[in-house]
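TL;DR need structure tokens for one chain.
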Amino acid sequence: MFAFWKEKKVFETKDKAAFLAAENRLAEAGIQARTWTSPESPMVCCCAKIDVRLVGRKEHKLLDVYHIAVASEDAERALQLLEQFQSTSH
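>> reply
TL;DR here they are.
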């Protein structure tokens, strides 16, 4: 079903709890969302990919980045819901 959607990314975070809460908020509002996880990207400097674990703090570990995308026609409503949700959760 998602293969034929024109979609827009409405949410991206490294915080899994915030991701799950946002996903639930959209589901409660009846907005179908596509979710996926990707690894944190290494830093890019001078056209060379540098692994942050080698040049940064020794305890740094790459985190997962959580994404939520919705259909283009639902994007405006989803953004409004997520803005309201983020303002009430802080």
